[in-house]
Design brief:
The complex is a heterodimer.
Chain A: H1 5-27, H2 30-39, E1 40-45, E2 52-53, E3 59-71, H3 81-88, H4 92-105, E4 111-117, H5 119-128, E5 135-145, H6 151-154, E6 156-159, H7 162-167, E7 176-179, H8 181-185, H9 187-191, E8 195-201, E9 207-210, E10 226-228, H10 232-241, E11 247-253, E12 258-265, H11 278-287, H12 297-300, H13 308-320, E13 334-337, E14 341-344, H14 354-359, H15 363-375, H16 380-392, H17 415-421, H18 448-459, E15 463-464, E16 470-473, E17 476-477, H19 481-484, E18 487-488, H20 496-508, E19 523-535, E20 538-552, E21 559-565, H21 572-588, H22 594-602, H23 606-610
Helix pairs in contact in A: 10-21, 13-15, 13-20, 16-17
Chain B: H1 2-5, H2 10-31, H3 45-65, H4 68-73, H5 75-92, E1 94-96, E2 99-105, E3 108-110, H6 113-129, H7 138-156, H8 161-165, H9 171-176, H10 182-200, H11 202-219, H12 225-251, H13 254-263, H14 275-285, H15 298-301, H16 313-345, H17 350-374, H18 392-410
Antiparallel strand pairs in B: 1-2, 2-3
Helix pairs in contact in B: 2-3, 2-16, 3-18, 5-6, 5-7, 6-7, 6-17, 6-18, 10-11, 10-12, 11-12, 14-16, 16-17, 17-18
Chain lengths: ~625, ~425
Amino acid sequence: MRKILLYIIVITSGLIFLARLFYLQVMDDSFVGLSENNAIKVVYDYPQRGFIFDRNGELLVSNQPSYDVMVIPRNLKPFDTTELCNILSITTEQLVERLDKAKIYSPRLPSVVIPQLTKSEYAYLAEKMRKYEGFYIQKRSLRDYYTEHGANVLGYITEVNQRIVNENPYYLSGDLIGRQGVEGYYEELLRGVKGVKYIQKDRFNRDIGPYKEGIYDTLPKKGKDITITIDAELQKYGELLMKNKRGGIVAIEPATGEILALVTAPNYDPADLVGRKRSENFTKLWLDSISKPLFDRGLLAEYPPGSPFKTINALIALQEGVVTTQESFSCHGGYFYGRGRKMGCHAHSSPLNMIPGIAQSCNAYFANVYRRIVEKYPTPQEGVDVWANHLKSFGLGDYLGSDLSTGRPGKIPTSKYYNKIYDYPTYKWFSTATLSNAIGQGEVLMTPIQLANMTAAIANRGWFYTPHVLKEIEGNPIKEKEFTEKKITTVEPRHFEPVVEGMHQVYKSGTASALQIPGIEIAGKTGTAENFTRIDGKRVQLTDHSIFVAFAPVDNPKIALAIFVENGYWGGRYAGRIAGLMIEKYIKGEITRKDMEEWILTHSLEEEYAKPLSGEPFRINQ
Amino acid sequence: MPKTISQFDWLSILVYFLLVIIGWVNIYSASLDDTARSFFDLDQIYGKQMLFIILSVFLIVILLSLEAKFYERFSSIFYIISLISITGLFFFGKTINGATSWYAIGSFTFQPAEFAKVGTALALSKFISDIQTNIHSLSHQFQAFIIIALPAVIILMQPDAGSAMVYAAFFFPLYREGLSGGYLIVVVIGVLVFVFTLLFGPIWVSVGATILVALLFFLKKKRIAGLMASLSLLIVAIALSFSVDYIFENIFEQRHRDRFNIVLGKEVDNRGIGYNTNQSEIAIGSGSWFGKGWTEGTQTKGNFVPEQHTDYIFSTVGEEWGFVGSAVVIFLFIFLILRIIHLAERQKSQFNRVYGYSVAGILFLHFFVNIGMVIGIFPTVGIPLPFFSYGGSGLWGFTILLFIFLKLDSDRMSFW
């Protein structure tokens, strides 16, 4: 015992030490972070966000410097609260509240106290900054807008929320991120990569030089400048025409799938969401649940397409070989089917074959055509699915896959859907049960961009590119397969000419003959869609939506568009006029139909929108 | 001379140099700033330490060249010189960090307490190995105690409690030579009662001690005589337990109380008194498996750990060399201490053996208290890590201590 006691004690101590070291160094990694935090200061260098140009090279969005007052709670020293609050023009309570919040986020990481100082506030504060230990000014770049239009396309930038900070390690509290539109979808392209400097600190929190001679430091990478497909002039004009109306315009260049204009009304000035007024303005827009200015109707609103849908039914019928262009159907004020049921139609000559059928938008003609498509197959289920598959090849009934941050699938009913609502096989259903599909009412829903894309596919006679808004990155055309590969429709090109001719006749002799533009051959189709709302739980019909699709020129289409004007009475009244003006603006660059422009600019639908909110009974469509 | 060279324990000498060199490498990192790059810059701490190391090589040559008998014969003289030198501090000493432990000659300072250990070890060995000394006699035990306590008390008065505490190491040679283990048991029980009382309060400690004694008694029924001893021990322990509060609050100074409270986890104060330990743990903990690399430690560079080149030098090892490097250093120390015990055991002369045990005990105590403090399992006591910490007095003191023994060891056969 006497000989081994010291041996035992020495060895035991050694083992205890090793265990303790193992715990400190290997098992417990809380000290690793702690070390990085108290010895290394991380300084970020924010790059310029990429500029945004329109398709003609016009600068839409650039940057302006902005200054945020940041705080690192751990480094705070007692300071003159009153003076600081005066400089920042906030109350002491607000300051205390923000400091508490910053402390909760992290005592060691910077938080924003006051975002986006004005230049004069910055100049004044910069002088005094050294008096406030723990505070510093972080320069960031904010957006500077050269256009008042296209806020829905451009999107906006905002401070990241806590969820993003948790999910994406790139972002720190107070960083800015793009939301919605191009800013949101191309965030990574536009933001660039922020630079990082690691600075070694000593125990007095003084900088003693770059950490490891700066080997981990990175330089900021400037965001990429992008050119978007929007034509700023056309966009601006579209927004002007849509004033005092609700709805959307989507204009596409058929040959490329490039979106020329994407108008939603009502809209807002993109500059409203920049600067210290941002949160106030945003709240105002956000809370407007009646006109919903933040709701991009061009992308998100799912409307029944109405008559423009007839063109596609005609195409499917030709592809399926169930009608010829010469075959006529008679119409006596409508189409009668089932047990005395009737689908009404307006007054026109009868019988009609395909081209005048489209031009006059005869419901009876398309009811016959639609039944032939569905009834070609042994069961209505098969028929409806064949029909639906054709529609899908036009990008309908599913998300389009455009590069805009939002979208909706719309709706194309299939046999599955009808089996469910009619409780098949307990009850059977037949083509007549789905007859509203013939005229684009009933179960079919489309967003304006889907409708515009369908029009572009017709203009191209059987193919389209997925609509997109990004044209070039730093002057190099985009190479995304999604946007540079043709999508071919299931309807062969040879079937398109009669339908195009029918749409041409809409202008020449049909429902839009009053809307002709001198010198431009336009193919179009009016649409008038019934729609309903709920008032106190009761289904109430509202004034019909005004819908129009068109492309021009007929032989070499430069523009295809779809227009929805909510409660705009009928297709030709609002949407048709707007379509003509947009086409003229884009192709000629000037307006000759001043009468039409005058009419649109002086007519408002605000009264119509007020009707269902008034609480009193009202009449529609007049 | 040629005959004895082969008899030196080269293994110990190798480990000694490894520790000194590794120590210097870490001092270099801990004291590095950007102004100078030469290893021999005498304005820099690492340059001075390099000089100390070179001088200690000369010292070693001298130590090993002297006759082994010389150390035994003049042990009393060394002891008396030691006592005089530490006593002289009260008249000529320089006060650094509150302790009057240094002589200052020009810019160099000299800490005699580092050498007093050697004198005491030699004197104790001489006394124990005297043919007339009987370790079992109380009066001789008392004389041995005086030899140890005299320098310890003088050092305690400087005040330098850390250095004084090291004299507890002389228990190991005395125990080896036959001192009753009861002393150790009493001290250990005392310390345990003290610490547990601080943690859990006197009531629980009393209850626990009673249960423990009862268990021991029933397990070993045979020895009725043990009953009385156990009971009296129990009563003393309970009395101590209830007086802990008084001792802690009235005899300890605030800084002692703080140090205890922090190690026992009763108080968290990472800015004040607990700052050193906390920063040291952060530095070591951030080293992970392999460390951040030499001169790459962020905590070391930022001077977050106070006194890092002296008492806290091990935190540099932990940060820059990681668990692997720390384990190597621990291993080297353990190896050296065990080696010395092994050498001591093979001595034929009792003087050599007692001295060897003293060396092992002193090295161990320094090692244990210093590293225990740096890794946060022992209260803050400022004593250096042998061969490692910066400082000429310390390095030379330990060098003399060790190499006298290696000389004695090489000469062990010449008695016959």
